[in-house]
């Protein structure tokens, strides 16, 4: 395999029928002498909700940054069919701009920059449209970050640490919005999370990343019943035989 990764981006809305909207094979990412990702492979199908879980420092953010073109892989293959939008860790809003101006940034380069479809999905934002992003609560800011990503009319949305620093009640509300987006609009979701309970509840499949390697994958229901996964990520064993 070539040392230059193959990347295919924005091949048309939805991607070819039956093909993954994200397909990664043997991905390697290095920062100098340190290897952040080693031989990582995974996929997200059209309309799927897939979780990527793992401890802090496992390489989760590096992986989504590679998908978004922020980080250049050393080798491997990344194929993205359709449009991918990235909700970054920490939200990264423009605090002195209004909510609506932050949303419009997400449609940069598009002829259609009407935020009305985003307000339909996230109606709470309509009443906050003129407020500065810096004046919002953490949950409201996360909602703006999701809305900004939706302005790109994506086929798949990658959300990096949805629950980071937020109260459980706020996270529950945000998760409901993502669930509705996936179920009602068919937008594929890649959820990058340390909170495995949230990830397993929201998604149908999951991959577990540790120290830059995929160590286990499968249906979320099956992973939640695994004693090994439960001990590591759910605060204890299931009490059942593996």
Kindly summarize this structure in a few lines.
This protein has 242 residues and is of the alpha/beta class. It has helices at residues 60-67, 99-105, 116-121, 138-150, 168-185, 196-202, 220-225, 227-233; strands spanning 6-8, 22-31, 34-44, 49-53, 75-80, 84-87, 156-160, 188-193, 205-210, 213-219. The longest helix is centred in the last third of the chain and has 18 residues, at 168-185.
Any overview of this molecule?
The chain has 242 residues and is an alpha/beta fold. The protein is 30% helix and 26% strand. It is built from eight helices and ten strands. Helix 2 runs parallel beside helix 4 (138-150). The longest helix has 18 residues, at 168-185. 41% of the residues are buried. Mean pLDDT is 86; it is low at 1-17 and 237-242.
Low-confidence stretches: 1-17, 237-242
Q: Determine the number of helices (DSSP H or I, runs of at least 4 residues).
A: 8
Question: What's the Cα radius of gyration?
Answer: 18 Å
- The best one-word shape is globular
Intertermini distance: 37 Å
Please report the total strand number as a whole number.
Answer: 10
Strand order of the largest sheet: 6-7-8-4-9-10
Mean pLDDT figure: 86
The H-and-E topology, N to C, reads as EEEEHEEHHHEHEHEEHH
Largest sheet: 6 strands, mixed
Proportion of residues in helical segments: 25-40%
From the helix content, strand content and strand pairing, which structural class follows? alpha/beta
- Portion of residues in beta strands equals 25-35%
């Amino acid at each position: 395999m070539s040392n230059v990764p193959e990347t295919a981006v924005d091949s048309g809305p939805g991607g070819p029928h039956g093909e993954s909207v994200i397909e990664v094979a043997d991905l390697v990412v290095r920062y100098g002498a340190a290897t952040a990702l080693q031989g990582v492979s995974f996929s997200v199908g059209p309309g799927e909700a897939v979780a990527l879980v793992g401890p802090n420092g496992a390489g989760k953010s590096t992986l989504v940054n590679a998908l978004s073109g922020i980080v250049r892989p050393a080798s491997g293959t990344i194929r993205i069919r359709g449009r991918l939008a990235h909700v970054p860790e920490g939200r990264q809003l423009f605090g002195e701009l209004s909510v609506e101006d932050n949303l419009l940034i997400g449609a940069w380069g598009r002829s259609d920059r009407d935020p009305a479809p985003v307000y339909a999905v996230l109606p709470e934002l309509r009443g906050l449209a003129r407020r500065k992003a810096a004046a919002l609560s953490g949950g409201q800011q996360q909602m703006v970050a999701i809305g900004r990503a939706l302005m790109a009319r994506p086929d798949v949305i990658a959300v990096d640490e949805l629950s980071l620093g937020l109260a459980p009640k706020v996270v529950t509300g945000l998760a409901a919005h993502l669930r509705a987006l996936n179920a009602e609009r068919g937008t594929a979701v890649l959820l990058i999370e340390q909170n495995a309970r949230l990830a397993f509840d929201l998604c149908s499949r999951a991959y577990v990343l540790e120290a830059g390697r995929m160590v286990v994958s499968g249906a979320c229901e099956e992973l939640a019943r695994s004693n090994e996964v439960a001990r590591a990520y759910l605060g204890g064993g299931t009490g059942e035989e593996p």
